[in-house]
Amino acid sequence: MKIARFSRLGFILAAAGSAVGLGNIWKFPYIAGENGGGAFVIVYLITVFGIGFSVMIAEMLIGYMGRIDSVGSFEKLAPQNKSTWKLAGFIGFTGIMILTFYSVVIGWIFHYISVALVSLPSSVEEAEYSFTQLLQTGIGTQIFYHTLAFLTTTIIVIKGIKSGIEKMNYILMPTLIMILGGMFIYATTLDGFSQALDFMFNPDWSKINSETLVTAVGHAFFTLSLGMASILTYSASLPKKINLTRTSLIIVGLDTGIAIIAGLILFTFLFQYGEEPSKGPGLVFISLPAVFYEMGSMGTLLAVLFFISLAFAGLTSAVSLLEPMVQYLIDRYKYTRLSASLLAGGFFYIIGILALLANTKEYSELLTFGSRNLFDWIDFITASVLLPLGGLLISIFIGYVVPKEQVRAGLKSSMNDIGFGVWYFVLRYLVPPALIVVMLNLLNIFV
Ligand code: PHE
User: What one-character DSSP code corresponds to residue 16?
Assistant: First the structure.
């Protein structure tokens, strides 16, 4: 079958659109806040550029050489034990799992666009109350906006790589960058900015423990969209001639830059109005709306723009979470794009409803298992377990299973010999042990 190919810029925007998401603007600032700021940011940067960047090249290479869905690509490139390695391709399933709660959060963001337009909460207490109300009793509202997120995502994927995903990213990504750029410039004029800089770049090493490391690595994979075949699936539609190293570097750079900028914007606003940075997941839904209220009409404008940019970031990631499964159904079972999208989309839509119900008063007991409810379990298992596991499989596959000459040939126009030597070394000897240590640490957290 002839695959529609991305243009070079189209690919960069789509992959960056996948990487830049709720992870950058919603999650990164709050986990940095919870883990003490500077020290966490440094660990995160080392992980992103040390491990993430190398794995990104490897994941791209699998799609680029395989030219088919993730399961087919692993199967095709494995020199032997094809039917076992094919199973590694099922990391694409993680995307659908992430999408269940991701779509619910995009739904909250849609809701907050309307809150920003109508009336912002006038204090943190009020903001906290309305956010808790939304989660605990706002079943109808949440389902309504989750449905909207589901429809938008699925319709774009139905339209395909060229006229759906590529086109969407051409519009949303530059808009997102302009909005955040404008807000960043504004933030630099406020007094809180120097405090934000200090908080994000002045490390307090006492805040680092094994849980922080696990969080940093898990988040590095999550934010770069690694370990679940999003990048792999997009790379199957790469133009033939492309420098994978440079492309990966641009994507990692954009993703990191946007996370840092979002963090600086948020913390500036919070410090400016004397709020705490360590508020957890409620940071952008509780502390921030109250701060926007304090800013008066400027705040309303900033709030609307902020939640719109967050929604854009979320949607460009959501399509990349859905695409691997859709591509798999198309390539393997000859589904039409329409029915593949509806099937995969329907799955995340329904589980997403269960996930949102798990936060509500009425159903939380039913949907809580052990220490976490369904929503938190899916978040934890996907981001902290399955993504690092996917990264481990990818690095072992390219580092040890696919013959070295084939890997070298695939990267012919992407690296010189020295660059290849360094990258291959990192992929073989640094990435797998680091990921194994992280996963062993996870056991500590479990027990
Ligand atoms: N990278 C996205 C974010 O930061 C989430 C994502 C994870 C998207 C994995 C695709 C694959 O929000």
Answer: H
Pocket test for ligand 1, best of 28, 153, 230 (most atoms within 8 A of CB): 230
Residue 89: closest CA among 108, 105, 75 = 75
Q: What is the pLDDT of residues 101-131, one digit of tens each?
A: 999 999 999 999 999 999 999 999 999 999 9
Q: Whose CA is nearest to atom 11 of ligand 1?
A: 225
Contact 175, 312 (CB under 8 A): yes
pLDDT in tens, 392-440: 999 999 999 999 999 999 999 999 999 999 999 999 999 999 899 888 8
Q: Where along the chain do its domains lie?
A: 8-446
Angle between helices 192-201 and 38-47 (to 10 degrees): 60
Using a 10 angstrom Cβ sphere, with 0-12 exposed, 13-18 middle and 19 or more buried, the burial of residue 208 is middle
Q: For domain 8-446, which CATH number applies: 1.10.600, 1.10.3210, 1.20.1740, 1.10.760?
A: 1.20.1740
For the segment 238-290, what is each residue's pLDDT rounded down to a tens digit?
Answer: 998 899 999 999 999 999 999 999 999 999 999 999 888 877 788 899 999 99
